[in-house]
């Protein structure tokens, strides 16, 4: 073998070795980056949790101050109403003396007596930090949205939102995100009891403020209603489906360009189309106008979802494929199954969907 050939072979060997080392180095570097990113996300979530606990303590202190202030104002109002005739005694509440007046011998009953108007007590009893507090919550929510997009550990995000919801139980922006976090946690476990616990938690917090018109609240409530159906007998599951459609429709009225809502509506129509004869009979006894739909109806919604979506939706693409299969349009199904398999799987639920897509590819391979 000539020296020139040896040189070429050595150079090739060095190049190959460098390539392997480079690939290994890049892999290790990527893992280090992922670990560092995960640590940063956990640190950010821990900091938010700490701040929420501080806010809870501040809020309790503020409530105590407001109660004391309101008691002083009530005393002043009572003294104004009964300057001379009322008999007084001193009662202590939270270490604050309040003059209490008897209504005996007056024209006031107890309900009327304690019905102080806002003008008398002071309608503007908002603390000076309210605006600042709202801005801080908004900032936390924006940060949590980013954490969820970056696939932060679902349980960590859930804990932060749980604490935030305790602080702001009627804040619809907090509550729908907590509901979403419950969904993420339920999707990230294979244990059915744990899954059910998260679903029920999300439903409970939603139902407390479900009268508040909000597209995201309705959307995530509907999603959990749908998931809850997996734990119910047929009759209740069908009733749940009706409630699912009700809130998806309400959400669409408020947010008609949301691709996820069209996917959810398509899912409802797909499931209705798949009902057995027995299930249809049960639905007919439950509702004067039982739900009805076809696979063509479902396909239309899935296509609309794909059209409106700015990012690929694995669920929607899987159900596009499944609907084409139900319509015996196998050739149209394969491109969507391929697209499902090409997407990155970020959790157990994604891997389950890809396993299903792979199984369908194998099952209907003769039609390719």
From TrEMBL:
Coiled coil stretches, renumbered: 38-72
Pfam family, one: RMD1-3
Subcellular location: Cytoplasm, Cytoskeleton
Annotated GO CC locations: cytoplasm; mitotic spindle pole; spindle microtubule
Keyword Transmembrane helix attributed: yes
GO molecular function, one term: microtubule binding
Superkingdom classification of source: Eukaryota
Keywords recorded for this protein, A-Z: Coiled coil, Cytoplasm, Cytoskeleton, Membrane, Repeat, TPR repeat, Transmembrane, Transmembrane helix
Bilayer-spanning residue ranges: 6-29
Record's subunit section: Interacts with microtubules.
Protein name: Regulator of microtubule dynamics protein 1
Organism: Cephus cinctus
């Amino acid at each position: 073998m000539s020296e020139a050939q040896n040189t070429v072979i050595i150079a090739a060997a060095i190049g190959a070795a460098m390539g392997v080392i480079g690939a290994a180095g890049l892999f290790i570097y990527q893992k280090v980056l992922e670990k560092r990113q995960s640590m940063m996300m956990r640190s950010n979530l821990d900091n938010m949790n700490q701040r929420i606990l501080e806010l809870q303590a501040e809020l309790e202190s503020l409530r105590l101050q407001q109660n004391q202030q309101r008691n002083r104002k009530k005393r002043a109002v009572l003294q104004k109403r009964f300057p001379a005739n009322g008999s007084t005694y001193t009662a202590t509440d939270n270490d604050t003396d309040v003059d209490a007046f008897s209504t005996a011998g007056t024209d006031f009953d107890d309900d009327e007596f304690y019905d102080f108007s806002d003008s008398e007590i002071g309608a503007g009893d908002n603390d000076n930090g309210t605006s600042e507090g709202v801005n801080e919550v908004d900032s936390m929510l924006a940060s949590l949205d980013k954490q969820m997009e970056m696939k932060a550990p679902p349980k960590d995000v859930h804990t932060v939102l749980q604490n935030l919801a305790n602080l702001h139980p009627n804040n619809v922006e907090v509550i729908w995100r907590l509901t979403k976090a419950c969904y993420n946690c339920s999707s990230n476990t294979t244990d059915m009891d744990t899954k059910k616990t998260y679903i029920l938690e999300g439903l409970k917090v939603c139902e407390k403020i479900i009268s508040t018109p909000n597209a995201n609240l309705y959307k995530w409530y509907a999603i959990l209603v749908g998931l809850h159906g997996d734990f119910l007998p047929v009759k209740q599951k069908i009733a749940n489906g009706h409630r699912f459609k009700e809130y998806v429709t309400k959400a669409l009225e408020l947010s008609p360009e949301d691709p996820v809502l069209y996917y959810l509506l398509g899912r409802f129509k797909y499931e209705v189309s798949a009902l057995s004869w027995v299930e249809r009979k049960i639905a007919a006894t439950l509702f004067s106008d039982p739900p009805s739909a076809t696979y063509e109806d479902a396909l239309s919604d899935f296509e609309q979802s794909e059209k409106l979506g700015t990012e690929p939706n694995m669920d929607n693409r899987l159900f596009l494929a499944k609907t084409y299969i139900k319509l015996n349009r196998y050739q149209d199904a394969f491109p969507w199954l391929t697209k499902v398999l090409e997407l990155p799987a970020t959790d157990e639920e994604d891997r389950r969907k890809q396993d299903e897509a792979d199984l369908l590819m194998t099952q209907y391979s003769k039609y390719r």
